[in-house]
Amino acid sequence: MKAFFDERQLRHAPTFYFRRGAAMPHQEQPQRAEILRDMLAGEGFEIAKPRDHGLDPVKAVHNTDYVDFLPTAHARFVESAGTEALAIPTMHPGRRRGKEPKDIHGQMGWWMTDTSTPLTEGTWEAVYWSAQTAIEAAEEVLSGAKSAYALCRPPGHHAMRDCSNGFCFFNNACVVANHLTSKFKKVALIDVDVHTGNGSLDILYERGDIFFCSLHPDPATYPTFYLGHADETGEGEGAGKSLNVLLQQGASEDDVMAALDKGLAAIKDFGAEALVVSLGFDMAADDPLAAVNVYPEGFAEMARRLAALNIPTVLVQEGGYLGPSLADNAKSFLTTFREATA
Ligand SMILES: [Zn+2]
Q1: Is the pLDDT score of 218 beyond 80?
Q2: Sign (positive/negative) of CA torsion 234, 239, 245, 246?
């Protein structure tokens, strides 16, 4: 199993964001990707750089105007507010009636949902190459590989069709799932990050050709809130093609495996020919954003169960923060998955 990574993804360097009304050190640090990259190298994974596939595969799942807003947004913000200010939205449109304004601050509220996606000088480059890394891994599987791992950063699964959310700008996993439909009639995306794949749900909700499943604590009481409830099962052609499996906060490994098995059974029933995994390691018991209790051996077991579907699979990196076991969890999952799909 080949891994893909581009160093330019390290250039998004957020300092802080607001959580529960307080400024907090930003959790989604470049060091996360460095730790994962170094683990891959240490375990003998071949790490390749992505080619440039352009923005068409991204615009296939995102609003074009949103995609076009991002490349110049940081420079325009700095021109307006200077370099000391944090490039976050401070105004929001509320209901989506009305029009996108021309002012940078108004536009930021239009296209960004919260304070967790501050724009920094290198943000666009990192976001761009994070998406290219994902697309390259999809290309690898389209070319016949059984599996590929995209070390993406910033992550993507909270990004919705027309806005950033929860550390995420482009929804890499949805870009991959959509890309795979050029060859595979039915694709499944399963999200095992501890947080809900709310962006993926938003993007895929009416798709009949991509089944989506996410395991996460109840969004009524756990961030990122709003989406991912059990009764959200898809609409139109996507009716019955979204599955949210809710976990209790504090859930054990056995609980998580039972939830995973529910998702896997639904994916089999759907008849998926290819799989995308939104792979977060923040189900770890010692993750800074921990909500459930998975340990390195639990991540290996998740890898075995996912690999047992025995269909071409793209693993897309999502969350998993700077807790003590990040490298161990990633090593445990990825080396097991590599072995199982060799
Ligand atoms: Zn997460």
Answers
A1: yes
A2: positive
Domain coordinates in residue numbering, the chain:
2-66+122-340
Distance 191 CA to ligand 1 centre (A): 10
Taking the centre of ligand 1 as the mean of its atom positions, its distance from the CA of residue 69, in whole angstroms, is 25
Output the pLDDT for position 99: 87
* Listed residue (176, 177, 81, 78) closest to 124, CA to CA: 78
Which residues, at least 6 apart from 107, have a Cβ–Cβ distance to it below 8 Å?
69, 73, 100, 101
Q: Which amino acid is at 107?
A: Q
Q: How far is the CA of 51 from the centre of ligand 1 (A)?
A: 27
Give the integer Cα–Cα distance in Å for 152 and 173. Answer: 10
Judge whether 96 and 143 are in contact, CB under 8 Å. no
Q: Are 43 and 331 in contact (CB under 8 A)?
A: yes
Going by DSSP bridges, is the β-strand pair 147-150/313-317 parallel, antiparallel, or unpaired? parallel
Phi, psi at residue 211, to the nearest 5°? Answer: -85, 135
Asked if residue 95 has pLDDT above 80, the reply is: no
Residues catalogued as catalytic = 158
54-63, pLDDT tens digit by residue? 999 999 999 9
The mean pLDDT of 214-239, rounded to a whole number, is 96
Give the CATH fold of the 2-66+122-340 domain. Answer: Arginase; Chain A (3.40.800)
pLDDT on residue 97 = 77
How far away, in angstroms, is 260 Cα from ligand 1 center? 16
